[in-house]
Amino acid sequence: MQYDFSGQRVIVTGAAHGFGRAIARAFAGLGAEVWACDILSDEVVEARSLVRSPGGLCQARTVNVRVRAEEQKFVREVCSDGEPVQVLVNNAGGVLGQVGRPLEEIDGEDRDSVLEVNLRAAFWMSQAVTPGMKRAKYGRFVNISSGGGLRPGMTGVQAYAPAKAAQIHLTRQLAWEPGPWGITINNIAPGFVRSNSTSEWQWHDMGEKGQGALIEGLALRRLGSPADIAHGVVFLASEHVGWITGQVLPVDGGRLQSCKLMMCASACRRHSCSCKREPFLACGLTSMPWRRPAWQMSRGT
Ligand SMILES: NC(=O)c1ccc[n+]([C@@H]2O[C@H](COP(=O)([O-])OP(=O)(O)OC[C@H]3O[C@@H](n4cnc5c(N)ncnc54)[C@H](O)[C@@H]3O)[C@@H](O)[C@H]2O)c1
What we know:
With 301 residues, the protein is α/β, with parallel strands linked by helices. It is built from ten helices and seven strands. The protein has helices at residues 18-29, 41-52, 68-78, 108-136, 160-176, 197-216, 226-237, 265-268, 278-282, 294-299, and strands spanning 9-13, 33-38, 57-62, 87-90, 139-144, 183-190, 248-251. It has a seven-stranded parallel β-sheet with strand order 3-2-1-4-5-6-7, with helices on both faces. Helix 3 runs parallel beside helix 4 and helix 4 (108-136) packs parallel to helix 5 (160-176). It starts with 8 loop residues before the first strand and ends with a helix. The structure holds nicotinamide-adenine-dinucleotide. Nicotinamide-adenine-dinucleotide binds at residues 14, 16-20, 38-40, 63-66, 91-94, 96, 117, 144, 146, 190, 192-193, 195-196, 199.
């Protein structure tokens, strides 16, 4: 089984760095014409240069996926020659710089922004590419969710795990509709990867003991990389995946499912948590970070 995306047009959202950048590079390396978009203009242009330097085909555009009209305009431009998109990777997402805080401190923008980028954006972007895929009787969607969509998440950002859970269910729901046109819609649920500032501070916040416990809780006993996620995406986006749809593939190093999630919810309701984080460390999960760790504050990130 070989992967060849020559002649295929691939959209990757949130491609400025992290997983999106790795995904864009992987597709371009396999011959695709990649259309990378992100809200971060300079960084998505930088990603385009990296994709192009070994000879890959890549265009970069600034798109805020929270704005449906921007997504539609982007897809119109991508398809301005009348040719459809073959692959859509809905990767833009994350906690958008938020940190875990008590529920009563969360305002509407905190909640809405996370829901819109992680869930709503995938809905409208999928809608925008579907007519072309139906005409071509071919298409592949890969949505990037999170282990947090399968169980309570590590970030402590209340809207994040429900947004990813809903995105997983959106995958299952949408898979039914365009199936007769040869269009498959699948989902990757990544495990913890040190690919962005949030996962980086989570990693530091765990301390040596927590980091060791996290790795020991993975069957493969190592942290993953953006390239590991990209490999899963390429598989689900390939022509070979013609009879797999509506599925979720955890790409997480074989996280132990038996690990008991000890949220210690009642104790952690207060800022000064009496659990001293040990219950979390014991099962390889980080604490619920009610506050930014000191090192992050000092960096002003
Ligand atoms: N890193 C992890 O541990 C991890 C684990 C599970 C799931 N994920 C998911 O994987 C995806 C990629 O994560 P990552 O680790 O590469 O993080 P990242 O922050 O590097 O990538 C997310 C990208 O989305 C972009 N984005 C955010 N809001 C946007 C908007 N309104 N419009 C357009 N682009 C926007 C960001 O600018 C960023 O480039 C996210 O959906 C994240 O939730 C990450």
